[in-house]
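Q: Second attempt. The first request was missing the SMILES, so the protein and phosphoribosyl ATP are both included now.
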Amino acid sequence: MTDDSETDAVLDALFATIEDRRDELPEGSYTASLFTHEKGENAVLEKIGEEATEVILAAKDDDGEELLAESADLVYHLLVLLAMQDATVDDLRAELEDRF
Ligand SMILES: N=c1c2ncn([C@@H]3O[C@H](COP(=O)(O)OP(=O)(O)OP(=O)(O)O)[C@@H](O)[C@H]3O)c2ncn1[C@@H]1O[C@H](COP(=O)(O)O)[C@@H](O)[C@H]1O
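A: Got both inputs this time. The predicted holo structure:
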C-alpha cells in the first residue's frame, strides 16, 4: 500500500512520460503511436471506450481479479487524452480538489 504522496508521484511521473512521448515521438513507443495515429484523436477515444467496457466487465466478473489492471489501462488512456488536449494532470487534480 502506498501513501497519497507516492500515489501522486506515480501519476506525475506517468504524465511526464506521456508528455515526453508526445513531444519526442520515439520509435516503438505505444504512447507516441497514439499521438501519430491515422485516426487522430479518435484512436485514443476508441481505446477509452474499449477500456471502460473492460472495466465494467471486470467489475461484473465474480473473482474481480482484472479490475485493477483494466482500471490502470483506462486511467493511462485518459491521461493520454488530457495530454492530447494540452490539459495536465495538475488540471485534473485541481478539478478533483475543487469538488472535495
Ligand atoms: N501505463 C501504460 C499503459 N497502459 C496500457 N498501455 C498499453 O495500452 C494498450 C492496451 O490495449 P489493449 O488492452 O486493448 O491491448 P492490446 O490488444 O495489446 O492493444 P491494441 O493492439 O488493441 O492497441 C496495450 O498496448 C498496453 O501496452 C500502456 N502503455 C504504456 N503505459 C505507460 O507509458 C509508458 C511509456 O510507454 P511507451 O510509450 O510504450 O514507451 C510506460 O512506461 C508505461 O508507464
